[in-house]
Major facilitator superfamily (MFS) profile domain-containing protein
Amino acid sequence: MSSHGFGAFIEVESSQNSSEGHSIPIVPQRAFPKVYHSVPHGPGPIELDNLQWGKKLNGPHVQESGTTTPSGYQTPRAPNDLEMSRAPSPTNDQDGVDAMQSFSNPPMNRFRMLAVSLLNFGNGLNDSAPGALIPYIERHYDIGYAIVSLIFVTNAIGFILAAFFVEALRARVGRARTLIVAQILMTCGYILIICTPPFPVVIISFFFLGLGMALNLSMGNVFAANLQNGTKMLGAMHGSYGVGGTIGPLIATGMVASGHFLWTRYYLLTLGVTIFNLAFAAWSFWHYEAESGQNLLSNVEHTASRTQNTADGETKKEGQFASMAKSFKSKTVILGALFIFAYQGAEVSISGWVISFLIANRHGNPSAVGYVTAGFWAGITLGRFLLSHPAHKIGEKKFVYGVVVGAAIFELLVWQVPNIIGDAVAVSIVGLLLGPVYPCATVIFSRAIPRQEQVSGLSVISAFGSSGGAVAPFTTGILAQAAGTFVLHPIAIGLFAVMLISCARPLSATPQRRNELIDLTDIQPTPITHMSEIESAMAESVSKFANEVIAPKVREMDENEAMDPAIVEQLFEQGFMGVEIPEEYGGAGMNFTAAIVGIEELARVDPSVSVMVDVHNTLVNTAVIKYASTELKRKWLPKLATNTVGSFCLSEPISGSDAFALATKATRTDSGYKISGNKMWITNSMEADFFIVFANLDPSKGYKGITAFIVEKGMKGFSIAKKEKKLGIKASSTCVLNFDDVEIPKGNLLGDEGQGYKYAISLLNEGRIGIAAQMTGLALGAFENAAKYVWNDRKQFGQLVGDFQGMQHQIAQSYTEIAAARALVFNAARKKEAGEDFVRDAAMAKLYASQVAGRVSGLAIEWMGGTYLRTQLLGSMLTLHRYGLRERGYRRKDVARQQDRRYLRGNKQHPVDDDCEVAKGPVFNLIRLLLD
């Protein structure tokens, strides 16, 4: 038998021939792993979605309180079942790296960031020069605006073509070789130009340049956007583009204005930069794939892009055109491409034609006004370096709207104010305002695209979007030939308007990225427990980690009644503690169901770890994401995702299920608030450094005075008292907390004053789904181990117990109930994600799943038999069985109350309305039902 998890508590005398000649006809075979102790099992006809062997099973202990009665105005009856059902526990993995790579982790990322910045510097040198060189190209070849504009068209064709094969190329040869191909293409283009060929060859050379730059841009955007602080990283990368854009016109104008150099000699500089970039990018990215790390995000990306099984078991990869087609169906990708199309069109049109406008309409000197383009690119550079950080503080949506409107105003001034100096300054300001728009938009759209589709999606956005840098200047050239160069300005202002319109939807939808990870078209026609690729990857990653890392330490942690700190550390490293935290804060940015899947997988191996992860994700992280200020989010979400355990402090000695009878009080002070009181049955107390504490700021208002605060470990007056002795989930710390005039700064107020009761209700409703997932995980762990034992080891009357029909009926019934409970859990999670009312569904899931956990754990004891059980396992399973029983009453009240609302005759409304406002008088007691 297993030497860890449940098996660690079991001593079994295996029969010598227990597995010989016996089939497993009744239980769905998918309940067993495909290989367990070198014994293969094939898939069965009925599935519970990738079940793995679960391990230790424990339940919480309910302890009566002998403390004095608080001054709350309601008499509490029992501890809060959410707090009573939680216990902390972490996980560990020896190969984990940060859930999200950063600038310095792994160390080579510093050089990679420098490499992509240099690639963009080279792109900037290339893109900015035509604006200064166009008058000289026209003179050299004796051609007009319309013909010169063809270089922008072929450049755009190169960009568009790259979108069709960039992902296939990257998947086949890796990032390093893809970047090598890009530099070779650009080298060919530059060599052709330097030879001063006929103009048709120049047009072809710009095609090669567009192709190479598109590959550079795609690889760089995906790399930088997926680092921590992606906005800053992209700002630095595209700021380098602006540096090149600033230097390019200065050098080009200085060379050709002197009369000593042909316009083509400028491209000797870009050729040298490209050759250097070829060597440096290849070196820095050569081992990128090998260093991607065995973390949650990389595992998810790998699993989501894996080959899919065909009917005969062989595999095949999705073709690049199928991937492209999927990107074209995405509204986010389409609107992103439209946004970048308008942005690039405005940027290149202004830089390419503003000099011609100043010469023709303002009678400027070509050798002098040639430097105006450099001012424009200098503005872009400063904007990207200086304004990207404020954009994150203000909020990308508001910021982008503001700077685009500002750019349109200054572009109008250039058009209408006939002053060449003023025009030059205004053009520079337009560049300053436009500078941070591109990196901000790239981050926004990358977050809105599922991770496994980012390369193809961003390639479509950058390729087709960047074609605007050809179409708009070409159109401007055609119209300028017919009407004059003043047409630049109405075209630019119109493109700004397109940016404002197209950015509205994706920007507002960006916070919903974790919901977009669910492919609803894939889920709807399939079983409700079907998982998306992201969720399947999550289940696989957590299951592997739990069985390989947590399971060997389950017994030791249970006996020591303490979490292994190494496991807690590795839970963070694997990304399991920040499942729903957005990626810009260092989290995984996944959906709610992915978190539920992970909680269930952990509960199958160790309930203590599952409880810790559940409380941290569904209560603490969710509270900060939904209700914290921007400053608190920036301060705490990165910590909660990477190294800080959180705790949810609601229950008190006689304020459990009657959670609104809080005795803990908060008073205002000059510097903030002061908290006094006690909390009891608090999960994660020993491991946590971050505590969300509910206290009554104004008892005269009753429950409407309840307010949420953030208390940090180590604050004066805050202490962790005794640790509760429990019969089960012993590794999870459940403690009493004392608050003796704890000073809280104003900035640690969570949300608004007096809104704590609403926050608690909302969070507990979501938390019930997490508890239900714990129960199904516990039931699966007990079922899997016991079923394996009766079918392989335990014999009675000369045959395996699993061969008795009565035993087979019990196993079939238990498995059916587990499947039904899981369906309720997944249904509640899906409804929550869809924005539907899920309160009743969450209550039903918790009610039924706890009942099933109790029944299955009790049966598991019977199946395994007292002879082969150690007392420790028996006590733990009996505790779990009692835990399952105690859940019934509270959840039945919740379900009944939801039905009461639906079937009251006429227009009668329940005293507790949907936003949890409470009627005065005796009906206040009804509010407690929502907190159970």
The radius of gyration is 32 Å. The mean pLDDT is 75. The longest helix spans residues 756-792.
